Structure formats: C-alpha cells, structure tokens
Amino acid sequence: MSSQRLVGLALLVLGAGSLVETFRIKDDWSGARLMPLLVAVALLALGVAHVVSRAPAMAPPAAGERADIGRVVLALSVLVAYVALFTTLGFFVATAALLLVLVGALGRYRWPVTAGLALGLAVACHVVFRVWLGMPLPDGLLGP
User: Fold this and answer.
1) Residues 37 and 77 in one domain
2) Could you read off the pLDDT of 39-79 as tens digits, one per residue?
3) In terms of domains, do 37 and 85 share one?
C-alpha cells in the first residue's frame, strides 16, 4: 500500500473520530459544534481524496536543496506562544500578533501590507467568532 493511501486512511480515521466526538458535544450554544464539524468534514474529504487519487510520484529533491526547517520551527513556536499568551493578551491582540509574525516571516509582502493583512484578518476573526457566533473570548489587554 502506498504512503499516500496510508495517509488517506489515517485522515479518514481522524475524520470519523472527530465526527463522532463532534456529536458528543453537549452545549446550549448552537455554534459549539460548528468548527469541529467543519474540521471533521474536511478531514474526511481529504482522506477520500488521498485514497482515490493517483498522484504522480514526487521527484527527489535537487542536489543542495532541502526543506526549510527554520520556517516550520518558527510557525510552531509562534503557535505555542499564541496558545500561552492567548488569555493574557486577549483574542484580538494575540491573533493580530500571530498573524503579523507569520505573514511577515512566511509571506513576501512589505511590512505595511503585512500589518494591514494581519489587522484586517484579526478584525475578520473577531467579527466571525465574537460577534456572529457569540463565542466568549478573552478580552485581555483591550479590556471588556
């Protein structure tokens, strides 16, 4: 069995487990199951795509070419810091800082564009999660 099919089967198992756990959520808030449901459906769809597709074999990396592990370490470090500081800084500030660092480091934009993207995406996340879905998120530095 190819590694692609094994990944597909793993995604299907994760998706099925996520789907089962999504429906076990007992909460009066109607949006509590939305994100877990979307993630479960996405995992199932990606699993099916991996199992049924016939992707061509990947070419080996060229001489001197290797994965940029620094970018991976940066992304993981920023996510760990985001989780650690989420309550202290609050949702909006922590999300804006996360996006500023990730878009700045991983994107190819100038800093004014990066800052605009980070702020715009943080505002969009605030509107979706706080205003539309009514999620109780920490205020942090911005206060109530």
Assistant:
1) no
2) 999 999 999 999 998 766 666 666 656 667 788 888 999 99
3) no
Q: How far apart are CA 78 and CA 101, in angstroms?
A: 8
Same domain, 112 and 85: yes
Would 43 be classed as within a structural domain? yes
Rounded distance, CA 18 to CA 38, Å? 10
What is the structure's pLDDT at 39? 93
In a domain? residue 64? no
Within a domain: 28: yes
User: What digits encode the pLDDT tens for the residues 16-40?
Assistant: 999 999 988 887 776 778 888 999 9
> Closest Cα partner for 133 from 30, 21, 28, 37?
30
Sign of CA dihedral 124, 33, 98, 74: negative
